[in-house]
Amino acid sequence: MKSITVAELKSLKENAKTMLLLDVREKWEHAGYNIGGINIPLGELLSRREELDKDSEYIIYCEKGIRSTIAIQRLEALGYNMLLNLQGGMAAWKKICGE
What is the CA radius of gyration of the chain? Predict the structure, then answer.
């Protein structure tokens, strides 16, 4: 499984690089704090997978990296290949970026 660090993602965002972010936390978590992207909770991911383009690269995140790892495993089994896991999730983002 490929991953991206918080520092790498922060650099991409600061340089206005276009990226697709997918937050697999619950809706209330996303509403409380997020770094952008679409929100499809892990429990809804398979039923809503048609919302994701198989030919696009996604950076997938959750609170600590566990749900995003599961999401990537499920999507890879369906043929999605360009998926990056945000190491440490939002907990690491808040710690490193102070946001």
Answer: 12
Q: What is the pLDDT of residues 35-67, one digit of tens each?
A: 989 999 999 999 999 999 999 999 999 999 999
Cite the active site residues: 62
Q: Which domain holds residue 78?
A: 3-97
Contacts (Cβ under 8 Å, ≥6 apart) of 8: none
Pair 37, 65: CB distance under 8 Å? no
The enclosing domain of 71 has a CATH number of: 3.40.250.10
Q: The whole model's pTM is what?
A: 0.93
Number of domains the chain contains: 1
CA-closest candidate to residue 18, choices 61, 57, 71: 57
